[in-house]
Each structure stands twice: as C-alpha cells, then as structure tokens.
Specification:
By secondary structure, the chain is α+β, with helices and mostly antiparallel strands. It has two domains: 104 residues, Immunoglobulin-like (Sandwich); 105 residues, Immunoglobulins (Immunoglobulin-like, Sandwich), CATH 2.60.40. The chain is built from two helices and 19 strands. The strands form four sheets. The protein has a five-stranded antiparallel β-sheet with strand order 1-3-8-5-6, with no helix packed on it. It has a five-stranded mixed β-sheet with strand order 2-10-9-4-7, with no helix packed on it. 17% of the residues are buried. Keywords: Membrane, Transmembrane, Transmembrane helix. This is Alpha-galactosidase NEW3 domain-containing protein.
Length: 285
C-alpha cells in the first residue's frame, strides 16, 4: 500500500468525521458557557467565618455578605433557626434588622450576633440562617463552639448587703456562693477586708467543689470591738479560687449599747449639773 494511497484515505476519513466531531464539541461547550453565566447571575449569601469558638458568656459575631446579582430590586427576609434559648439578631449599618432591600448588582455586609443560652453545654452547635426573597432562597450553616466558662457570684440569700450591729457584739451574716458558670469550681476560699480591729470567721471557710448552677450557704460571723464609734462601716467579703473571683461589699451600721449610752448621758448630766453649781456659787459675787 503506497504512501499516497494512505494520505488520500486519511483526508477522506478526516472530512467524514470532522463535521460530527465539531457538532459534538459545540454541543458540550455551549451548556458550559450558559451554566457559568447562570451562576454569575444568581445572588449569593456568604460568610467570612463559618466556625467561631468562644465562652458561653460571650456573644458570637459572624460577618456575612448578601449580594443581589439579579436584574431586579429584591427585598430579602432574614431568618434563623437558633438553638433553644439562644438569641440571634441581624445587624446592618449599626441597626438591628429582619429584612433588607438590595438594588440590582448591589451587596450589603450583615453582622449576625448570637448569644448562647446561659446554661448551654460546652460543645459545637450548628444552625442555619436564611436570606429569602420572591425569587431567591439562600442558606448559610454557621457553627458556634461553646467553651466552658468559670463564673462565680457572692451575695446574700435576700440580695440585701447591709445590716446593723451593736458595738462590742457579734453578728452572723448569711452569704450565698453561686456557681454561675458552666464548669465546676474547686477549692473556693472565703476572705474578708474589714475596719481595723474587727474580726471575721467563716463557716465553712472553704468549699471543696461547687457544680455549675449550684449554690452553697456560708455564715460569716462579724465581731465589732468595744468603744467603736456609732456610724456606717464597710466590710468586703471575697469568694475566690484559681479560676474565678467574686466580691460583695457589705455595709454595717454600728450602734452604741444601752449601757454605754446610759453612761454617756449620765456623764453629760453630771457635767451640766457641775456647771450649774459653779454658776450659782460664783455668779452671786
């Protein structure tokens, strides 16, 4: 078989299959181009960070961007399915919003602020947020990883932080230590800062462990020395461990005893009487 013959056969084969191959190629390329154009024309709802980790007592802040790529003005309704007890709000330009109006080709930065429930367990929470209009429905899935938090509160059972005491006497102040965090608190000690020569003892003086949401009662016995002047005084009680601290400022009104008051009145009367006698004796001369 000659080279000329093979060349002629190749040309015939190429002419025969060139047109069908060209049709097939164009058939595949045209949808690809249209698909890219469709994707480009669709609106978008994106986030810079999808996963944020923070303590339970802090607010999770996600930054999102809503883009209207349609050829019409759109009003997007913003919704979310947050975990039970959580608070989620959308903000744009410093204001809280529930919907937003976007002109064709425009975009808007939307902040999503999420406040976990106070008793949220330390773990990862996943929840969707939506931007919906008449023609578009977009969804973002966000993740909030809640860290355990150490938090302590020292107060009184009634919440009242004031009382009265007579000088030279003792008084019992009932305190309440509360674990308001999400992690156990160990080895909580109690201390006091009082006026000079005052004394305080605690029962118990230390709490070995306090579980989240639990509280413990503590009695502080306050001793005021004799001859303490009547008036208002401030004592500061502190509950702390290596992870958290709480302080309660307690105002104490000191009153004089009846005996001290009677002696004082008697001294005053004696002094007045003595002056009166002197006036009567020397005033006649």
């Amino acid at each position: 078989m000659s080279a000329v013959y093979l060349q002629k056969q190749g040309l015939r084969w190429g002419k025969k299959w060139f047109l069908p191959l060209l049709v097939v190629l164009l058939f595949h390329l045209i949808p690809i181009a249209v698909s890219a154009q469709d994707v480009k024309s669709e609106s978008s709802f994106t986030a810079r960070l999808f996963n944020i980790e923070a303590p339970v007592n802090e607010t999770f802040r996600f930054q999102t961007n809503l883009q209207n790529n349609s050829d019409k003005e759109q009003v997007y309704e913003l919704k979310a399915e947050a975990p039970k007890g959580w608070r989620l709000v959308f903000k744009a330009r410093g204001s809280q919003i529930t919907s937003i109006n976007l002109e064709p080709g425009k975009s808007e930065s939307i902040n999503v602020e999420v406040k976990p429930a106070h008793d949220a367990a330390p773990k990862k929470y996943t929840f969707p947020i939506y931007a919906k209009s008449g023609n578009d429905s977009m969804e973002l899935e966000l993740e909030a990883v809640v860290e355990g938090a150490y938090e302590l509160e020292l107060t009184t059972p009634s919440g009242r932080l004031s009382g009265e005491i007579t000088e030279g006497k003792n008084t019992e102040i009932h305190l309440k230590v509360i674990n308001t965090g999400s992690l156990p608190l160990n080895e909580i000690s109690l201390t006091a800062n009082t006026p000079s020569k005052w004394e305080v003892s605690f029962s118990p003086s230390e709490l070995e462990v306090l579980e989240p949401g639990k509280s413990a009662d503590v009695i502080a016995t306050l001793s005021v020395p004799n001859k303490t002047l009547a008036g208002d005084y401030v004592s500061k009680f502190t509950a702390k461990n290596s992870d958290s601290t709480s302080m309660a400022t307690y105002r104490v009104t000191v009153k004089t005893s009846l005996l001290s008051g009677g002696i004082g009145i008697l001294i005053i009367l004696i002094a007045v009487g003595f002056v009166y006698v002197l006036i009567r004796k020397f005033g006649r001369r």
